[in-house]
Specification:
Layout lengths: L4 E4 L6 H8 L3 E4 L9 H7 L5 E4 L8 H7 L5 E4 L9 H7 L2 E4 L5 H16 L2 H9 L15 E5 L3 H10 L6 E5 L5 H4 L3 E3 L2 H7 L2 E4 L8 E4 L1
Parallel strand pairs: 1-2, 1-3, 3-4, 4-5, 6-7, 6-9, 7-8
Antiparallel strand pairs: 9-10
Helix pairs in contact: 5-7
Keywords: NAD, Oxidoreductase
GO molecular function, one term: NAD binding
Protein name: ACYPI002000 protein
């Protein structure tokens, strides 16, 4: 009996994971890195697949792609937290299971975010360029102390960022969300409108609505 086909959207998966999958499935790998794999690559290779494994939201998994896979497609798995690229309504109509790894990247992304906030506040990039040119930094910035930080889109990562920032001497922590977040409120966080957050914050972190991308702003 032949093994069910599983399509991997790129070749950046760990060899140990691929080896484990190959014990049960006929694994087809698109031989491109995650940033190079395209929608057309999936379209050309997905026919007859039992499963599809993707990473994040860089390639849309829409109804056309799902139809091209055919009735054999039963599972789609995202190795990241987000699945905004997947047409969940199309999956529901066909009874296809969708899996994601909710907390897989929470710590690393939130740590990176706090690092970017510090680097932005303390002008690390400018200082680095000046040092490379043989000059002393002209400014060390203002720092996060006594500043107001705003978090746009306070999901798992936003909450983790708020917890990490609780160790800094902020003068205010603002956030936007569809509903109050007790985990942030207990740290002194305040749920506000987007306009209010933008108007009052010195630094803004946005992890909402941009797929796998996260942004830090300094006003």
């Amino acid at each position: 009996m032949s093994k069910p086909k599983v399509l991997l959207a790129h070749n950046d998966f760990l060899p140990a994971i691929i080896a484990q999958l190959m014990e049960t499935f006929n694994v087809k790998i698109i031989n491109k890195p995650m940033v190079g794999s395209t929608y057309q690559d999936l379209l050309d290779n997905i026919a007859g697949s039992f499963g599809l494994i993707i990473s994040g939201g860089n390639i849309p998994v829409d109804e056309h792609l799902i139809e091209t896979a055919g009735p054999s497609l039963r599972v789609i798995s995202s190795t990241s937290m987000g699945y905004e690229c997947v047409d969940t309504n199309a999956l529901k109509k066909r009874g296809i299971v969708l899996g994601n790894t909710v907390h897989a990247t929470t710590d690393r992304v939130s740590e990176l975010t706090v690092g970017l906030l510090i680097a932005t506040a303390r002008h690390f990039l400018d200082a680095n360029q000046q040092m490379k040119s043989g000059k002393l930094p002209t400014s060390l910035g203002t720092g996060l102390t006594n500043s107001v930080v705003g978090i746009i889109g306070c999901g798992n990562i936003g909450i983790a960022v708020a917890k990490m920032l609780s160790g800094f001497k902020l003068s205010g922590l603002l956030y936007t969300s569809r509903k109050p977040k007790p985990e942030v409120e207990c740290l002194g966080g305040q749920l506000v409108s987007l306009n209010d957050l933008v108007g009052r914050s010195d630094f803004i972190y946005s992890g909402h609505g941009f797929g796998a991308r996260n942004y830090v702003y300094h006003k």
